[in-house]
Amino acid sequence: MNAIGVDVGGTKIAAAVVTPEGKILNETRYPTQAIPPNRLVETIADAITEVKNGFEVGGVCVAVPGLILTAENKVIFAPNLHEIENIPLDEEMRNRTGLSVTVENDANAAAWGEFRYGAGKDVEHQVFITLGTGVGGGVITHGVLLRGSQGAGGELGHVTLDPEGPLCGCGNRGCLEALASGTAIRRLAREIANKQPRSALGQLAIERQVLGEDVTELARKGDEAAIAVLNETGRWLGIALAGFVNIFNPEVVAIGGGAARAGEFLLEPARKEVWLRARSPSRDLVEIKEATLGPESGVLGAAALARSEDGEYVLAPPGV
Ligand SMILES: [Zn+2]
């Protein structure tokens, strides 16, 4: 049986019908900005109905950014998506679509996507980090997604690395998110550009606002200032990963999200910190690599977390 995965984000709502093998049979996208705030629930339901379009489907999982209580299928806090907060989203969706609907954190869903179909498909223990505007995370141990007692676990982006560090979106200081997100890369790029006005990065910063992808592009061209930005960011990432490697002893750490396109400029300094700080044998085993599914990890992982009416995963892994 197929399942539908829905990835609700700040820029788009994507829905897809997915087979047990992870093949997308049908897909639809709606730009979030074009949706009036009071039509969000309706639009998610419309996307599910539209994408279903004659396919046999056993269940739906809606992945949402923010704080989710998966045990209650409830969104506690979702930045810019307030209409879906504190409502029984599963029931609202079931009433509109006639399908069994569960709710999951978007980074947990993406982590599960990489585990089932991407960078972690051959292992049992995987840590996933997504470096976007914010930093999300997800942990799989013994083939099971770590959710914690309420379903709010796996918030790897908000571990404190520097108590006096930059302010984070969560209100704390020096979280991984405040030091290694796309937003953090732009902030650090401004700082280093000011100190090195003659660098290519410095010159660009005089002309216009520097974006994350500019930093990667300049680093590829060999600009030392841009390389320094990514090196510092990768270093913070690695300091956080060293902790996760010690705690979870994963076989794979997969790094996804838009900022992960900087590739080895981030991963190399990150691996170095893990080597310096994590303990043997965990540090010897772990492979730190780029996620492989790109933005599709969200819908694929959500679909693979969809449950049928009897509570079973619709796309159960083989042998389970
Ligand atoms: Zn934080």
CATH superfamily of the largest domain: ATPase, nucleotide binding domain
What can be said about the biggest beta sheet? Answer: 5 strands, mixed
Envelope shape = globular
Main sheet: strand order: 3-2-1-4-7
Helical percentage: 25-40%
Task: Domain count, please report it.
Answer: 2
Regions with little confidence, pLDDT below 50 for 5+ residues: none
Distance between the termini: 15 Å
- Please count the helical segments: 11
What is the succession of H and E elements? EEEHEEEHEHEEEHHHHHEHHEH
How many distinct beta strands? Answer: 12
What is the SS-derived class? alpha/beta
CATH architecture of the largest domain: 2-Layer Sandwich
Q: Any idea what the radius of gyration is?
A: 20 Å
List bound small molecules. zinc ion
Strand content: 15-25%
The CATH class of the largest domain is Alpha Beta
Determine the mean pLDDT. Answer: 94
CATH topology of the largest domain: Nucleotidyltransferase, domain 5
